[in-house]
Structure formats: structure tokens, C-alpha cells
Known about the structure:
Elements: E1 3-6, E2 10-16, E3 25-26, E4 30-34, H1 51-62, E5 65-71, E6 84-99, E7 105-113, H2 127-137
Parallel strand pairs: 2-5
Antiparallel strand pairs: 1-2, 3-4, 4-7, 5-6, 6-7
Amino acid sequence: xxxxxxxxxxxxxxxxxxxxxxxxxxxxxxxxxxxxxxxxxxxxxxxxxxxxxxxxxxxxxxxxxxxxxxxxxxxxxxxxxxxxxxxxxxxxxxxxxxxxxxxxxxxxxxxxxxxxxxxxxxxxxxxxxxxxxxxxxxxxxx
Length: 142
């Protein structure tokens, strides 16, 4: 899963990979992030939701920063061209129940990039880093 954290302390980090591209929205500094696993109730938090979803809910309540990593292939034009990139600290500010095209209900979280950080380096990875990534991916075959 793309969420690392606990229900008692909240989320330490998430990976934005474009898995739910038809549901999520990413503009770089503002993200709507859907969690996996449909809900079984209409508007309240069911007792059976995954611990990662509970961790996200805890993060909304605590307001603590969440480290965001993005992978190549995400829905935002500023996503890395290869591999994965750390894009800074975000705060989960809200969540809502949404429905997918099959009627399954899920929680979608709104994340906002925290102030006081360097801008997201959209030039990463560089061309040289991309070549190195491909070499690693290919097992350093020549």
C-alpha cells in the first residue's frame, strides 16, 4: 500500500502513484488522495476500515505533516519522469466519502503542502539520474 503509518499516531508517509487516477486530483501543492478499500456504510466511519485509512483519519485530526513521495506516471505534469521523488511535507486537512463508478464508497483525503519548504524540484530526476535509474532497473546489464 502507499500509506505508511499507524492508527494511533497517524501517517508518516504516502506514495502518490496515479493508481486511482480517475478518482484523485493532484496539482503539486494540493492533492485529493483516495485510499483503497470500499466502505460498507454510507456516511459514517465503519469499524472495519483498514488501519491505513484509520491512520489517515488520525492525521487529519492531529494536523501533523505527512511526507509525500511521487512516482513516475502520476496524474500531475510535475511528477518525476522516472523512479520516485520526495516532494515535501503535506498536511491532511479533510476527508469525505466518495463513490466510484461502480457505486463503491471510499474515503478521499485532501492534502495541502506545508509552507516554508523549498519548491518542488520538477527537474528531478535529471537526465543523468534517469539513465542511472534505468541501469539499476535493468540490473546493470551492458
